């Protein structure tokens, strides 16, 4: 049975990468929402103040301490949340931060990956109720130049041609996604406006026009996937 009225806290690194459809999911399920917006110098809450922690994406690297000194504090907070057995979900940079906290390497991917690309679930995903309503191959939204190694003790769940490590699960309470299931056409448009220099000519980088055209088709499907995963995750 899904827990009603959970306390959901999210960490947001830049103004233009918010939880998108996850906000609607939380509101429709009458979950309490709170946030730490590092770009506004907001304080982190006590660990006991939330049940589910969601760590959003951002253009920075997990080691950019000079530009973003709060990264050190954020990592300690994530580590504390995991050790306190809170539910923790990381998306893109968020997944990289979790991987780093768990001792795995975060590094440049061999290619940047930006746009709508297929992601393949591995056989191990079949044993995870989180993915019971997710097909073997989905088309998901990507916007990253870095990647993570799989932390020791975690299970690799998904891959694709551009990036070997797309998803991992650690224990029963931690999941990291390199890609974005939460993105809406509106949130994707914000990324395009704020990070236009990322749209270089490369094998796995789509044009802004193509990204926006594909968003209308794929975003609603992915939004349903992340809602289903979250429903299972908090049971």
Total separate domains: 1
Q: What does the largest sheet look like?
A: 9 strands, mixed
Give the CATH superfamily: Class I glutamine amidotransferase (GATase) domain
Q: Quote the average pLDDT.
A: 96
Report the end-to-end length measured between terminal Cα atoms.
6 Å
CATH topology: Rossmann fold
- What is the percent of helical residues? 25-40%
Find the count of extended strands (DSSP E, 2+ residues).
9
List keywords for this structure.
about 240 residues, alpha/beta, Rossmann fold, 5 helices, globular
How would you characterize this protein structure?
With 235 residues, the chain is of the alpha/beta class. It has a single domain, classed as Rossmann fold. The protein contains five helices and nine strands. It has helices at residues 21-28, 70-83, 93-101, 185-194, 208-233, and strands spanning 7-12, 32-37, 52-55, 87-91, 106-121, 137-148, 154-159, 167-170, 174-177. Helix 2 (70-83) crosses helix 3 and helix 4 (185-194) crosses helix 5 (208-233). The longest helix is centred in the last third of the chain and has 26 residues, at 208-233.
């Amino acid at each position: 049975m899904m827990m009603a009225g959970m306390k959901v806290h999210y960490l947001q690194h830049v103004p233009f990468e918010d939880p998108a459809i996850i906000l609607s999911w939380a509101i429709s399920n009458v979950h309490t929402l709170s946030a730490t917006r590092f770009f506004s110098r907001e304080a982190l809450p006590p660990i006991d103040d939330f049940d589910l922690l969601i760590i959003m994406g951002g253009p920075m690297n997990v080691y950019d301490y000079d530009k973003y000194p709060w990264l050190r504090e954020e990592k300690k907070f994530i580590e504390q949340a995991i050790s306190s057995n809170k539910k923790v979900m990381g998306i893109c940079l968020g997944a990289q931060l979790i991987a780093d906290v768990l001792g795995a390497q975060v590094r440049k991917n061999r290619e940047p990956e930006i746009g709508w690309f297929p992601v393949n679930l591995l056989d191990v995903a079949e044993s995870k109720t989180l993915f019971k309503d997710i097909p073997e191959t989905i088309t998901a939204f990507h916007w990253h130049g870095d990647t993570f190694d799989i932390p020791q003790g975690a299970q690799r769940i998904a891959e694709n041609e551009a990036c070997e490590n797309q998803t991992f699960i650690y224990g029963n309470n931690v999941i990291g996604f390199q890609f974005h299931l939460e993105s809406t056409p509106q949130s994707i448009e914000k990324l395009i406006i704020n990070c236009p220099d990322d749209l270089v000519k490369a094998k796995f980088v789509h044009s802004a026009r193509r990204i926006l055209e594909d968003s209308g088709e794929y975003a609603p499907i992915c939004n349903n996937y992340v809602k289903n995963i979250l429903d299972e995750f908090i049971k």
